[in-house]
Design a protein that fits this description.
Layout (H helix, E strand, L loop, with lengths): L1 E6 L7 H16 L3 E6 L7 H12 L5 E4 L15 E5 L3 H5 L4 H18 L2 E4 L2 H11 L7 E2 L21 E5 L7 H8 L5 E5 L4 H9 L3 E5 L4 H10 L2 E4 L8 H9 L2 E5 L4 H5 L4 E3 L4 H13 L1 H16 L3 H16 L10
Parallel strand pairs: 1-2, 1-3, 3-4, 4-5, 5-6, 7-8, 7-10, 8-9, 10-11, 11-12
């Protein structure tokens, strides 16, 4: 069986590519399928580039096509009966809900038509599935949850917690990552904040105004990112919106305590393995940070729960789930004609 993974154009991001890179490697070790990875040639910034990407994927050959995320619309140029579509979140629909034309374009081309066409649709969390049903109705009930697995290189590495001046790790700087409220909550707490992701001049000024000792890294390799986890005492994941929440599991696996949002999917994914706060309440965020710094037994409890929680989300389990879907998708009758 030949499976083709379709990825967005390089430079758009790396989280999806990292996840499916591990799935691909795991499936190769199991020798369950032959998998090739193909990037579409263009970032989807214009209708012309969307059209060029559709023409590109239409020429591809495989037993099963798996659209790994982001470029959902490529399902329109693939044989639907051989297509697996993974949706990570409904961010564009949420982002453009007050812009009718853009919302309509994304709803139709990125969600409704691809979900209708693909034989199998997977989502990374029950939260994303419920969102998809909210936006698409009964059609989206075909979606099944295949939870992400964490990087297998991230394994338990105990370290002494630096109570006098802990190192806090913040992954991501997009608006939903809630960095401003975190900075506000940290004012006056002796610590070092490590931020992974680009910072605007306004954010830098805000860090300086609040006298935050911080380090900033952009474009880290996977190995360097793992080193950031190993060197930190606490992981901050106070997002106001997520489709999944991989940093939770990465912190759990390595053995670092986590402060996260009392929202789904973070609450369901982290289970008992994190301290939850209202991400819109800077006082609650501050109190949560202080509690994790000061309460050693509570930290130890959360870290132990995190190690167990990470085992529930192994890359092997994710690969096995996808493998079962591929086996079904390859047992097909007539192949549907592509739309494009």
């Amino acid at each position: 069986m030949q499976i083709t993974y379709l990825f967005r154009s390089p430079g758009t991001g790396y989280s999806i590519e990292t996840l499916f890179g591990h799935i691909k490697q795991t499936m190769r070790l199991k020798k369950s399928a032959r998998i090739q990875s193909i990037d579409v040639p263009h970032v989807s910034k214009s209708w012309w580039h969307v059209w060029q990407n559709l023409r590109f994927v239409r020429r591809l050959q495989a037993d099963v096509f798996h659209i790994t995320g982001d470029i959902h619309y490529t399902a329109l140029a693939l044989p639907g009966s051989q297509t697996v579509l993974t949706i990570h979140d409904c961010g564009p629909l949420k982002k453009f809900r007050n812009q009718p034309l853009r919302y309509g374009a994304f709803w139709l081309l990125w969600y409704y038509l691809p979900v209708r066409r693909a034989r199998y649709v997977t989502v990374v969390s029950e939260k994303t599935r419920q969102e998809l049903i909210h936006y698409l109705g009964k059609l989206a009930e075909k979606a099944v949850v295949v939870a992400n697995g964490h990087d297998p290189r991230m394994t338990y590495a105990p370290a002494r917690f630096r109570t006098e001046r802990p190192v806090l790790l913040q992954i991501g700087t997009a608006s939903n990552k809630n960095l401003i409220r975190l900075i506000t909550a940290l004012y006056g707490i002796p610590c070092t904040l490590v931020i992974v992701g680009p910072l605007t001049d306004d954010i830098r000024a805000y860090l300086e105004t609040h006298q935050i000792d911080y380090r900033n890294y952009v474009g880290l390799s996977r190995e360097a990112l793992i080193d950031c986890y190993l060197d930190c005492d606490m992981v901050m994941f106070l997002s106001t919106y997520e489709g999944f929440g991989m940093p939770l599991l990465e912190a759990n696996a390595i053995g670092r305590v986590v402060l996260t949002s009392a929202l789904d999917p973070m609450r369901s994914i982290a289970a008992e393995a994190a301290h939850f706060v209202d991400p819109t309440d800077t006082v609650a965020i501050r109190q949560g940070i202080l509690q994790l710094i000061e309460d050693e037994s509570y930290r130890a409890q959360l870290i132990e729960a995190g190690i167990n929680n990470a085992r529930r989300y192994s890359i092997d389990k994710t690969a096995d789930h996808y493998d079962a879907i591929y086996q079904k998708a390859s047992c097909i009758t007539p192949v549907a004609e592509a739309i494009v």
